[in-house]
């Protein structure tokens, strides 16, 4: 029995990718509202010696007097809470829904929601802060409302696997089930192969580049608004537009790097491993150079600073579309969700550490105080790129593949499925 590849357009697996996209979009509407809102919540002129009338006025306008260290602790508090909610749903979901030849495309579509949500939040947040008194309050309320609406849609249309989906066609179900190997999976109580994981050079290289990249990305996502307003002295209304444009660049590179990488693999132009190495190099060494550029950008070099921000965010998208984020499902498909949750915990800790370091270094938000941080993160990004090149891989580890050929008369044999797989 040969199962031909059903078109991706208008398919159930595309519907799942769009639902994941909306999930990340809503998540980042809620995640990024404080980093953009804090630029208009802080009153820079108030002092503790202000008279009672001034204090009353400030409270009515919902503005606050927080020191630089307090602001960094608030921005880092998100990542502290994020540590305790690491439920690796998305990676586990794609291990059920994505066949190898479509993995980059589907995952990149889903993760594009992170950058679209960030772009929308930055753009709307800048406008609300500029034109509406206490406009940041409406940003918090609206993002919460969208979260409830998305939950209803997810419960209505989503399913854990093709085998559990109510409206998927039999042809598409067989194609995904055979291609992803889920027809042959049996629920077993297996021990986690910790020793093999710790001895796996490709996995250690992947974890290292993931944590180091997200260390930088989380920190600068949290502080991008502050850098533009306080270091480069760009008006708040323009910071929202610039940040939105930057994250649209991230969205574009994340989406199309995944699609192009899959096309290169299908046509035999590049192996999966080489596409992952290329993407991880761009997403690491590009931001490394941007940190050096930030070091020299002052308030008089606004054009250079804006171009650097756009370049930084564009390069960051490659990791999501065809780099380290996708790579977990390549090399450890059986444990991808579990390991990704652990790694994301360390990445979140790095987000907290970044803001704590900034709270110590930044006595006030000036370029001279920011420069040590730019040097630090240029080194971080350089190490993220260097560690992956010699040891990175997209070949699945034998001990991390799903058990195959479980006895079942109704199985679709893997050798009869026309997947046109190209190995690294």
Would you summarize the structure shown here?
This is Major facilitator superfamily (MFS) profile domain-containing protein. The chain has 424 residues and is mostly helical.
Could you explain the architecture of this structure?
The chain has 424 residues and is mostly helical. It has one domain (12-185, 194-401): MFS general substrate transporter like domains (Growth Hormone, Chain: A, Up-down Bundle). The chain contains 16 helices and no strands. The chain has helices spanning 12-31, 33-41, 52-60, 68-82, 89-97, 103-131, 135-157, 170-180, 194-199, 201-231, 236-266, 272-296, 302-322, 324-331, 336-361, 367-391. Helix 5 (89-97) packs antiparallel against helix 15 (336-361), helix 10 (201-231) packs antiparallel against helix 14 (324-331) and helix 10 (201-231) packs antiparallel against helix 16. The protein is globular, with a radius of gyration of 23 Å. The two termini are 27 Å apart. The model is unreliable at 45-62 and 405-424 (pLDDT under 50). The chain crosses the membrane at residues 6-27, 73-94, 106-129, 136-156, 203-224, 236-261, 281-297, 304-326, 338-361, 373-391. It is a multi-pass membrane protein. One of its GO terms (cellular component) is membrane. It is found in: Membrane. InterPro entries: MFS, MFS_Na/Anion_cotransporter, MFS_trans_sf.
């Amino acid at each position: 029995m040969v199962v031909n590849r059903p078109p991706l357009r208008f398919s159930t697996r595309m519907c799942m990718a769009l639902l994941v996209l909306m999930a990340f979009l809503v998540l980042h509407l809620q995640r990024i509202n404080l980093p953009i809102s804090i630029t208009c919540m802080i009153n820079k002129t108030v002092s503790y010696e202000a008279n009672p009338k001034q204090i009353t006025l400030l409270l009515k306008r919902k503005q606050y007097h927080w020191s630089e260290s307090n602001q960094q602790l608030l921005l880092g508090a998100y990542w502290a809470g994020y540590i305790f909610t690491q439920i690796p749903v998305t990676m586990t979901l794609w291990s059920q829904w994505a066949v190898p030849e479509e993995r980059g495309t589907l995952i990149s579509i889903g993760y594009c929601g992170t950058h679209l949500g960030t772009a929308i939040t930055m753009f709307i947040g800048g406008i609300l802060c500029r034109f509406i008194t206490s406009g940041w309050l409406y940003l918090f309320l609206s993002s919460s409302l969208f979260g409830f609406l998305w939950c209803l849609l997810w419960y209505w249309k989503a399913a854990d696997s093709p085998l559990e989906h109510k409206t998927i066609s039999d042809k598409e179900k067989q194609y995904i089930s055979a291609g992803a190997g889920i027809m042959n999976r049996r629920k077993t109580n297996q021990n986690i192969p910790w020793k093999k994981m710790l001895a796996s050079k490709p996995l250690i290289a992947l974890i290292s580049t993931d944590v180091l990249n997200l260390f930088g990305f989380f920190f600068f996502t949290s502080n991008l608004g502050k850098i533009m307003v306080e270091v480069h002295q760009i008006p708040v209304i323009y910071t929202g537009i610039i940040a939105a444009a930057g994250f649209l660049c991230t969205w574009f590179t994340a989406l199309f790097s995944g699609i192009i990488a899959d096309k290169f693999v299908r046509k035999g132009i590049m192996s999966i491993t080489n596409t992952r190495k290329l993407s991880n190099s761009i997403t690491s060494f590009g931001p490394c150079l941007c940190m050096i550029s930030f070091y020299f950008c002052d308030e008089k070099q606004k054009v250079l600073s804006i171009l650097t921000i756009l370049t930084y965010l564009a390069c960051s998208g490659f990791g999501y579309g065809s780099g380290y984020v996708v790579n977990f499902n390549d090399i450890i498909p059986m444990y991808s969700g579990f390991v990704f949750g652990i790694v994301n915990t360390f990445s979140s800790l790095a987000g907290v550490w970044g803001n704590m370091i900034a709270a110590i270094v930044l006595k006030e938000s000036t370029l001279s105080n920011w420069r040590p941080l730019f040097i630090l993160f240029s080194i971080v990004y350089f190490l993220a790129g260097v560690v992956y090149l010699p040891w990175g891989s997209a070949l699945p580890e034998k001990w991390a593949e799903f058990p195959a050929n479980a006895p079942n008369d109704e199985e679709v044999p893997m050798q009869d499925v026309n997947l046109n797989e190209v190995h690294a």
